[in-house]
Specification:
Layout (H helix, E strand, L loop, with lengths): L2 H7 L9 H15 L2 H9 L6 H23 L5 E3 L3 H13 L3 H21 L1 H8 L2 H22 L3 E3 L5 E3 L4 H18 L5 H22 L28 H4 L5 H26 L11 H18 L4 E3 L3 H6 L5 H11 L6 H5 L3 H16 L10 H16 L3 H18 L8 H17 L1
Antiparallel strand pairs: 1-4, 2-3
Helix pairs in contact: 2-15, 3-4, 4-13, 4-15, 6-12, 6-13, 8-17, 8-18, 8-19, 9-10, 9-17, 10-17, 12-13, 12-20, 18-19, 19-20
Length: about 450
């Protein structure tokens, strides 16, 4: 396709942009979110799923749905498997509840189908309007804190305490390397270097590899912390494709997980779209994001494709704002970002050796980014602040995103009723509360 056709198809002139700007914006977006290529497999592989196959699924979902977002919705928003949703998949569902990863993938697929139906019927608008804004902010921050806790626990920096719930894990080779890697990650991020998270993972992995070899040769450690890959390039693994167990995902006991995948994905997507649309000034005269229906449908398809290919739910990434800040205003930005994922499908051997001490700092920093929403909560209004705090704090403390969301909803409703603020509670929220109670019953 000639350059002029790109200009015409994506309406670059109408969007007051140009080909060069959109391409650079797409590269910027990719660099800021590319850490997911390594971090997502590192989290999901703890379930027993094959790292290389998860990496392939991650790349496919990110590439296909980002390109679809650009071509169909014509918006500069990139999509990839969501942070937080992958943590729920691994730590709450599979490791916490003993659900098989095949059934968990089935839950992702089912939630995607339901999301598609809700998107087509426009029911999601009713749901979104019913969810208190402060709870949305709190859940996002709570997931960020949860991710930071996971990262710190993975490297033994935070451990189960003796006489206390948690405690500092003490100084050892792993925690000392983590501190070094975290310092480097903080430096790169604070300098606002493009692609800082991915760059930190690469540099940290090399540092840990060198340290591992040196310490082993010096006799300080008995075995290497990491093992160099035997090869760099290999064919992608499609072993997880269509491995989801939809039949088990449709049982009564899976109501809660499907509920959580569906609504967490939906709330995260909608709030992200609103923020991105305003930062890019892609809103209509009524303040509604343009092409939001197509964007949400694309997001729903991302979740469905995720279940099929073998990863947790896909969702729009707030990191898309980096590309928008670089001037990206059209779908071409998302297309470029999506295309840049594809080469990494063949680099699974190189990426699979990345140690947890190299990725844990990224989880902590992502937690920092997600915690920014706390400043938006109405802390002076206790009928809003208390439910928000409950949702925020219970996500990490119960090691369950579901618990935080459910108790946040229920606390909000009860508190509003006790204060006579019945008008603040919609019929839709009452329905969500009933679903939340059913979810608790199903789980316990």
């Amino acid at each position: 396709m000639e350059a002029q056709k790109f200009v015409d198809f994506f309406s670059l002139k109408k969007g007051e942009s140009d080909l060069k700007t959109e391409i650079l914006a797409g590269i910027t977006t990719f660099l800021t979110m590319s850490y997911i290529i390594v971090v997502n497999p590192s989290i999901l592989s703890k379930t027993g799923m094959n790292f290389a196959a998860i990496l392939t699924a991650t790349v496919i979902v990110s590439a296909i749905t980002s390109i679809l977002m650009g071509i169909y919705a014509k918006l500069p928003y990139a999509i990839a498997p969501g942070m937080g949703l992958n943590a729920f998949f691994t730590y709450t569902l599979v490791l916490g509840k003993g659900v098989s990863w095949e059934t968990a993938l089935g839950a992702v697929f089912v939630s995607g189908i339901v999301f598609i139906i809700l998107s087509l019927l426009n029911i999601r608008k009713m749901i979104v309007e019913a969810i208190p804004t402060n709870l949305q902010y709190a859940v996002a921050a709570g997931i960020g804190l949860f991710l930071a806790l996971i990262g710190l626990n993975d490297v033994g920096f935070i451990v189960g305490g003796k006489g206390t719930v948690v405690s500092f894990g003490g100084f050892n080779i792993q925690t000392e390397l983590f501190i070094l890697c975290f310092a480097l990650t903080m430096f790169l991020v604070s300098k606002k270097i493009k692609g800082a998270l991915l760059l930190s993972i690469i540099i940290n992995s090399i540092v840990v590899l060198i340290a591992s070899i040196g310490l082993f040769k010096a006799g300080i450690i008995k075995s290497g912390i990491v093992t160099p890959p035997k090869t760099i390039i290999s064919l992608p693994s499609f072993s997880l494709f269509f491995k989801m167990n939809v039949k088990e995902a449709l049982t009564i006991g899976m109501i809660a997980p499907v509920f959580t995948f569906l609504f967490t994905d939906m709330f995260d997507s909608i709030s992200t779209y609103l923020g991105l649309a305003r930062s890019a000034n892609l809103i209509d005269d009524k303040g509604i994001p343009i092409n939001v229906n197509k964007a949400l449908l694309t997001d729903a398809l991302a979740t469905t494709i995720s279940g099929i290919s073998g990863t947790s739910s896909g969702t729009v990434y707030i990191e898309s704002s980096a590309g928008i800040q670089e001037g990206g205003k059209t779908g071409l930005t998302a297309v470029v970002a999506g295309l840049l994922f594809l080469p990494f499908m063949f680099l699974s051997p190189l990426l699979s050796f990345v140690p947890s001490v190299a990725t844990a700092p990224v989880l902590v920093i992502v937690g920092v980014f997600m915690a920014k929403t706390l400043r938006e909560i109405e802390w002076d209004n206790l009928t809003e602040a208390i439910p928000a705090f409950i949702a925020f704090i219970l996500i990490p403390l119960t090691y369950s995103i579901t618990q935080g969301i459910v108790w946040g909803f229920l606390t909000y409703t009860v508190l509003k009723i006790l204060n006579g603020e019945f008008k603040k509670i919609s019929i839709t929220l009452y329905i969500i509360d009933i679903m939340s109670i059913l979810a608790l019953i199903a789980m316990y």
